[in-house]
Amino acid sequence: DIQMSQSPSSLSASVGDRVTITCRASQSINNYLNWYQKKPGKAPQLLIYGAFTLQGGVPSRFSGSGSGTDFTLTISSLQPEDFATYYCQQGHSFPYTFGLGTKVEIK
Amino acid sequence: QLHLQQSGPGLVKPSQTLSLTCTVSGGSVSSGTFFWTWIRQPAGKGLEWIGHESTTVNSNHNPSLKSRVSISVDASKNQFSLSLKSLTAADTAVYYCARGEYGGVLDYWGQGILVTVSS
Q1: How close, in Å, is residue A30 to chain B by CA atoms?
Q2: A40 touches chain B (CB under 8 A)
């Protein structure tokens, strides 16, 4: 299985901060990297697919980059509704696998 | 707008079989090349992809679940279902259904059901 590692596992930030989350795959997954936002008690929501394509309806403050094994999710200006846990997921090889998540908390 | 509504028991006994259903509205399980997918999340842990079924391409399951899992699509009811047998406490989790697209993209999700395996 392809292992997905995320860092940091948690971070504290203030509204308006720029936040960067990294995700690393144990082998090359080309651009088959998706990002999800999850809030407690809610289903995950797709934010970005194919490493950098913003899902419809997702605010433009979210962006993704990277290819191969190293990827980044950036929130350019953190908003109150962005406090959540973020997961990366590879869609290159079965079984699809997720990172363990990055919890973004209020500072 | 596609909507996925999950149904099934919240409590199942060890060794029994879990059956969950996901009813799709606003679209058809038979249209396009979509992958009707199940994912789960044990409390305090990460997300685990269980597997998917499609009406147009081969299904695929997570080998970690070995032969315990079965996913089926019922086009006549516009539903898809998960069957997981020989349950243990380790199967306790919130189970989600989702629509998958090429590249593993999961773009629509059900609301999730907490399934507890306990006697």
Answers
A1: 10
A2: no
| Residue in chain B nearest A56 by alpha carbon | B107
Q: Any residues with CB less than 8 A from the CB of A30 and at least 6 apart, and which? A: A67, A68, A92
Tell me the pLDDT tens digit for each residue of B95-111.
Answer: 999 999 999 999 999 99
CB A22 within 8 A of CB A72: yes
Any B CB within 8 A of A45 CB:
yes
What CA–CA distance (Å, rounded) separates A81 from A78? 8
d(CA B115, CA B112): 9
Matching residue, tokens 């306990």: B118
Chain A residues with CB under 8 Å of B62 CB are: 94-95
CB atoms A34 and B105 under 8 Å: yes
Give pLDDT tens digits for A49-69: 999 999 999 999 999 999 999
| pLDDT number for residue B31 | 81
